[in-house]
Specification:
single chain, Immunoglobulin-like
Length: about 425
Amino acid sequence: MSKNGKGRKLVSLCAVGIALFMMFSLVSFTPLADAAFSSVTITDVTPTELHPGDTREVIVTVKNNGGRDARDIRLSFKGTEVVSLVGPTVAHINTLNSWCSKEVEITVHVKEEAPNGVYPVPVTCKWRGYYFDPAKGYVATDTINVSLGISFNVIGKGVINIGDISTDPTDIRPGNEDVEIRAFIENSGEAAAKDIEAKLICDDKFKPSWSGTDRSYIGRLNSGEKGEAIFHIDIADNIESNTYSIPLQIRYKDTKGGEYEVMREINILVEPKPEFEIVSYHTEPANISAGDNGVKLHVRIRNTGSEKAESVSVRSTGEAEVPFDFDVKSDYVGNLKPDEEWTAVLKFDVDTDALPKAYQQGIEIRCTGDRDLGDYNVYLFDEMIPISVSSNSSGAFSVPGFEVLFALIALFVVFVLFLRRKR
């Protein structure tokens, strides 16, 4: 190759090199609109978990992920039916340099009774990019509009508790039947509860008055609402005076059908009450027969209850097929303290045609409660005692008219002996 050809080739290479250098210089140092941009986005939200009825301060982190600065940034938060904004709905940031972040604060409110779920809040963001042009100085771009959004996870549940409790009668005593219990069931949680059903867990001390009276259906309760559950129970006769806790099982569902079960208690006070038993009894005379008169019946009673009994009396009750005619049907005893005993005396005649066997005689014990304790109730206690009628003392079977027949036979024998002596 000649020297002239080599020279032309070198000049061409230099020209190409200068052109490439100028092109790369322009790309590197002249920030054309399509070579760099600003990008505003939301990178974090704290907190994201809320509860129905909450009003919370929320921190939103805004970042510029672009190579250019952003100015005059406006974020418009659009509340929804479930999650709404309280106070200003627009947050303003003057400048957000490239790759930098800033925090803005908003206040949100979650609707009462909001069902569990994730709820988005739309956000519209506007800003202008900002960059330096060596030929023009600092240049702002046209306004940029983007649609962003944040989301909140709403978690709430119903919390079922027991409120006021009332009973009818107010004073519950051993042996009471058909006692009405009214209990207010309250939803103190953050979400609605539905299909609420309450059941008393009864035992030997407390039994349903009739089928189904240990259950009560309340239905739906929104947050803060309450409903009344009604039960009817019978109180055992031998229960001691005390405060008792009856377990209450409550089942319900949330608004999405999830099932729950909680255990609560209903506390009731069983007041003291007098109670009686017959300790012993006997007749005077000990053996009685048909036709006996003025038989005394001694009945010894004891107050086995937990309260003083006032105006105690003991009386016989009329029973079918009992051959006793009471002259003294009742005996006034007076007041008996718990564990105190007394003997009442009644008096009767035995029918002349009474058959020799044991008869079930009814005894009624009547009293009032301890008025000093506010117990004005009247109590009745019915007992049965067997009283035996023996055969006649001669051992012969007692038959009505037998004595007359015996007398006629005796007269006949005397008359026959008289005739024989006369002959």
